[in-house]
Design a protein that fits this description.
Number of helices of chain A: 25
Keywords (chain B): ATP-binding, Nucleotide-binding, Transport
Oligomer: heterodimer
CATH superfamily of one domain in chain B: P-loop containing nucleotide triphosphate hydrolases
Structural class of chain A: mainly alpha
GO molecular function, one term (chain B): ATP binding
Helix content of chain A: over 70%
Largest sheet of chain B: 5 strands, parallel
Radius of gyration of chain A: 25 Å
Protein name (chain B): Putative thiamine transport system ATP-binding protein
Shape of chain B: globular
Low-confidence stretches of chain A: none
Shape of chain A: globular
InterPro entries (chain B): AAA+_ATPase (IPR003593), ABC_SmlMolc_Importer (IPR050093), ABC_transporter-like_ATP-bd (IPR003439), P-loop_NTPase (IPR027417)
Largest sheet of chain A: 2 strands, antiparallel
Strand content of chain A: under 5%
CATH class of one domain in chain B: Alpha Beta
Number of strands of chain B: 9
Number of domains of chain A: 2
Pfam family, one (chain B): ABC_tran
CATH architecture of one domain in chain B: 3-Layer(aba) Sandwich
């Protein structure tokens, strides 16, 4: 039995190491070589700094760099502040489960679909302008850049609409591990106001639990491409978008500065995480001094109220964005100052049918394949831990998070170069591989806590009744964990559907999904067709969550502890 | 100093009162004990007095401190100290910093604050433990540190929520006398809820039985 556990662990480690980590290392290595002038395909084999010089001299480079830093750091820090303030104001009134129900739709929507919807809402001819038009007396869309603005404000709003619900969920689940109400009572009984107890007592305990997810958010915000194409400034765009464009430049020599940009992107994320660590160390030193002073400060209420209002506004924007996707996909005539379409028609759906059916099929196949592989791997990993009776080592945890912390653009070019070598580039297999790199970590993270929360006495009881490890897995663990397994699968579907860069790079532009189509179409002028693709893109994860919710309720309808009907 | 409850009554979400309206007066330095079976709402009563009542509870009557109605004040402005079953030291601060957290900010200067905390630690038999992680203290040490943290905040009244129930039998005696000595020497009106008759006997003050339901 011990032997079997070891075999399983070795097998899982080998698959994760060779299948997920090695490709990323290889991709980074290839990209890094090109960044320093070595590109055998072009006959370059001398190490030089020329690619970096070329990068710095590329038009718009400095602006791109600034935009990346401002939008990435700004949106993440603002989201964090707002999420903390919002939780401080409302935590007593929402339970983690009701919070999760409220936030899941926001998490399920792919970035690209949300971005398209937000563009429909925020644009000068969008819903908000249409609502103001009668009051302001506009007969034409106002001449202000509200999306694709050169400041990146539209992009920041978009990022925050997606980041806030994620951070809220992470903080809420961290709070459920702390006896907040009692710490709050203890702090207030000592004369501290609500907000101050939150900052001085609750947050320091929450922080270690949300540190890693916050890094993931930061890394994502600094290197996002699809949302930045749709909502961000275009000339020049953010660095990640610029690098993506340089990689696909007709002049192959552009690969050199593009690679330098890709490595710079990775360095920026590394630097930003280091900055957060530094700030944390500073806050610890300063915080101790501050705590010892015993200041009671009673006046945080206005700040909390402001955070609540801003969070609610951003969530409302998100809801409007999702609605506008569906409405545009069904609108026929909808001229400017009208708030509702003047006539409706299913024609946009019918006209683009051939296109979206094919993209939907590819997206579905990719989602099923990546989620199936990721789930199998995650379950094998967790079962291996159980059988070896060991907790996860820190380096193993790091291995899971690694793909989420390294910017995709940093290694995808190099990885694809490697795949070209073995003749796999541009195939569906290559895209599946590329997507699993990102689907697996999320599935793994989502499944780990419920897996560990399984009552160990149940497994011991089964063993005492003579059930071997395989029977314990198939007859006890998997059925009991059906609900969290399906939820992880739904999260996996959402992640797979949302992937833009891996599909673009690994598919060499030949694999067309709802996401790549939605991003391509978003720059066009036909909102109806864009709406069709974005609606489908948003609908697929929704459907996955619906299945994850409905299936256990049906299968376990006579098992109150498992059907999800009771509070769990 | 005195703590007065005037026809205090709490109704749960379903409209049912938890217990009959409660009126009592606690003079300075006296410990009044409220006893009752578990689930009758003893802790909820303390929450109501301290201002920590959770969402969904309705509250009528008044809480007065030295004759001043504090019913509408938020918890942090009432100056009513609170002690729990488990000491609830903040896990991210050292033992000494937990005490410093209780110290009013009107006491200024690093050295002075540090000295005040060290004095309190010594009084509680915790000398030299300023920098210790609260998680490494024994149950009795934690309970004493929590009491000192509460007292350093100079409360005008004190609420004790079964503060001895999680301690070993031997420790319990020590902690009782330690707590009640401090309450008397600081002349703080104190309300103790417990289901242990020995707690009530040690407290020495009046004992009130809390009965379920309204009527």
């Amino acid at each position: 039995m011990k032997h079997q556990g070891r075999l399983l662990r070795m097998a899982v480690l080998a698959v994760v190491g060779l299948g997920l980590i090695a490709p990323i290392a290889l991709g980074l290595w290839q990209t890094g070589r090109a960044a320093f002038g070595i590109l055998p395909a072009l006959g370059r084999d001398v190490v030089s700094l020329d690619p970096w010089r070329a990068l710095v001299e590329l038009p718009g480079f400095a602006t791109s760099l600034r935009l990346t830093l401002v939008t990435g750091l700004g949106s993440t820090l603002l989201s964090l502040l707002l999420a903390v303030g919002f939780c401080a104001a409302v935590h007593a009134r929402i339970t983690p489960s009701s919070g999760a129900r409220m936030l899941t739709p926001f998490l399920a929507i792919p970035h690209a679909a949300m971005a398209v919807g937000l563009a429909f809402v925020l644009a000068p001819s969008g819903w908000i302008a249409r609502m103001i038009a009668p009051i302001a007396g506009w007969a034409h869309p106002p001449d202000i850049a509200t999306v694709n603005d050169s400041w990146g404000l539209g992009l920041m709003i978009g990022l925050m609409v997606k980041e806030l619900p994620f951070l809220l969920l992470v903080i809420l689940s961290a709070l459920s591990q702390i006896s907040v109400a009692r710490h709050m009572a203890a702090g207030r009984a000592l004369g501290y106001g609500r907000g101050i107890v939150w900052i001085k007592v609750i947050m320091p305990q929450v922080w270690p639990l949300i540190r890693l997810p916050l890094w993931v958010v930061l890394a994502y915000a600094l290197s996002v491409v699809d949302m930045a194409i749709i909502l961000g400034p275009s000339t020049p765009p953010t660095l990640a978008v610029a690098v993506t464009r340089w990689f696909s430049d007709p002049d192959p020599a552009m690969i050199l500065p593009a690679s330098a940009g890709a490595i710079l992107q990775a360095v920026i994320v590394g630097g930003a995480v280091a900055l957060l660590i530094g700030l944390e160390a500073l806050a610890k030193r300063f915080g101790r001094w501050w705590l010892r002073r015993g200041g009671r400060g009673l006046s945080t209420e206005p700040g909390l109220r402001l955070a609540t209002v801003v969070v609610m506004t951003l969530m409302a924007l998100g809801v409007l964005a999702i609605l506008s996707l569906v409405i545009w996909s069904l609108a026929w005539r909808w001229s400017f100052p009208q708030i509702w379409p003047e006539s409706w028609s299913p024609k946009p759906w019918a006209r683009a049918q051939g296109g979206w059916m094919e993209a939907l099929g590819t997206t579905l196949v990719l989602a099923l394949a990546t989620v199936g592989l990721s789930l199998a791997l995650a379950i094998a990993w967790l079962e291996g831990e159980d059988r070896a009776n060991r907790r996860r080592a820190p380096w193993a945890e790091a291995m899971i998070y690694l793909p989420l912390l390294i910017p995709q653009i940093g290694f995808l070019y190099g990885l694809n170069a490697g795949f070209l070598h073995i003749g796999l580039s541009g195939s569906l297999w290559a895209v599946i591989w590329g997507q699993v790199l990102f689907v697996f970590p999320y599935v793994m993270i989502a499944l780990t806590d419920p897996w560990r929360a399984l009552d160990p006495r149940m497994i011991r009881a089964a063993a005492a009744l003579g059930a071997g490890p395989n029977r314990r897995l198939w007859a006890i663990k998997l059925p009991v964990l059906l609900r969290p397994i399906l939820t992880s699968a739904a999260i996996g579907v959402a992640v797979s559907v949302a992937q833009y860069l891996p599909t673009l790079f690994m598919g060499a532009g030949r694999v067309v999904t709802l996401t790549t189509e939605a991003v391509t179409l978003s720059s066009g002028s036909d909102r109806r067709v864009t709406g069709v693709y974005a609606t489908l893109q948003a609908g697929l994860p929704f459907a996955a969550y619906l299945v994850a919710f409905a299936l256990p309720a049906v299968l376990h309808r006579n098992r109150r502890a498992l059907s999800g009907a009771s509070a769990t | 100093m005195s703590l007065d409850l005037d026809a205090l009554s709490i109704r749960a979400m379903n409209g049912q009162p938890l217990f009959a309206p409660l009126s009592l007066t606690i003079p300075a330095g006296e410990v009044v004990t409220v006893m009752g079976p578990s689930g009758v709402g003893k802790s909820t009563l303390l929450d109501a007095i301290g201002g920590h009542l959770g969402h969904g509870f309705h509250f009528s009557g008044a809480v007065r401190l030295n004759g001043r109605d504090v019913t509408s004040l938020p918890a942090e402005a009432r100056r009513i100290g609170l002690m729990f079953q488990d000491a609830l030291l903040f896990p991210h601060m050292s033992v000494g910093d937990n005490l410093a957290f209780g110290l009013p900010c009107s006491l200024r200067g690093r050295a002075k604050r540090r000295a005040a905390v060290e004095t309190a630690l010594t009084q509680a038999g915790l000398e030299g433990l300023y920098d210790r992680d609260p998680a490494t203290l024994s149950g009795g040490q934690r309970a004493r540190a929590a009491l000192m943290r509460t007292l350093l905040a100079e409360p005008a009244a004190l609420l004790l929520d079964e503060p001895f129930s999680k301690l070993d039998a031997g420790l319990r005696e020590d902690m009782r006398s330690f707590t009640f000595e401090h309450v008397r020497s600081c002349a703080i009106p104190t309300l103790l809820v417990t289901h242990d008759p020995e707690d009530a006997a040690a407290a020495g003050g009046p004992v009130i039985a809390l009965k379920a339901g309204g009527a």
